[in-house]
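Pair request: fold both.
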Amino acid sequence: MALRYIRKKMDPVLRKKTAPVSRFTPQLLDLLDDMIETMFEAEGIGLAAPQVGISKSIIVVRNEDKVLEIINPEIINGEGEELDIEGCLSFPGVYAEVPRFNRLGVKGMNRAGKSITINAQGLMSRVLQHEIDHLHGIVLIDKALRLLTQEEINKMNE
């Protein structure tokens, strides 16, 4: 496993739509392991492949004590709307109010190429939507209704 460099702000790879994964190779497994290690090292709760410079449809997400790896994720349903504050490893120090579905269904594949379906709500629903946005070239500031001021960020960190 190896740490990957997290792409920041206006890096062009963050704006590209990703390609689906069609081959489950040892390199894919290495990438998944590297993404997980990078996410933990950066103290994030989600990471998409474009954030480490790879234009493939892959995300990893922390779910309490386990990690979800989702290849070719697609949102299959969503309901309820919730406005909350988000940050992003590619936009360090930037926080924004972003509306998201409160409940969500996602389908995709695991590292073995088997179909999986995930039903999530609350924070996990938000994280999944945020990471899937990255796969479509959509970043935090695109969805933000409002960026927080430095004073608001300071209060959050107190």
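--- second member of the pair ---
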Amino acid sequence: MELKKSIDARKIVALAYLILMSIYLAIGFTPAPVEAVNYDIATEILIPSISLASDVTALKLRDGNLDTPNTIVGSFSYAKNKTFLVGHSSTVFQNLHEVKVGDEIIYDYTTFIVKKMEVLERAEISMTELLREAEVETLVVMTCAGENLPGGDATHRLIITAEVQ
């Protein structure tokens, strides 16, 4: 009699263990919910040479900073004939370094030709100069480059200048 009670108790404990473990695994391995970000899409950018196609959202200046979207391109215009485009080098602009002078960038249904590419240290960059009015319609495309720094930043920036064709 004592043996039978011991076997039944073991079955109950084993069954409870299997049920609890199944619940734990189901909850523990479920992907964490991700908050969706709904950007107001202004236009799109295409860079055929690197097979890039992305939506573009207009950015607003907040406390002297532009918040770069995580997975699409952000745009900011400050002066006549100049549009500043920014995106993360770890997502949307991960292949931007492969663009070459002479490549096409299609932005807002207008074709631009890459005229200049440079990598500059952050301290060397004048945002006033980058955003200054241009004689012809110009894109300035920027992303992080160089070595990674804490907080998701980098030591340098890749800057591409393209002018309307």
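Observation on the second member. Confidence is low (pLDDT under 50) at residues 29-36.
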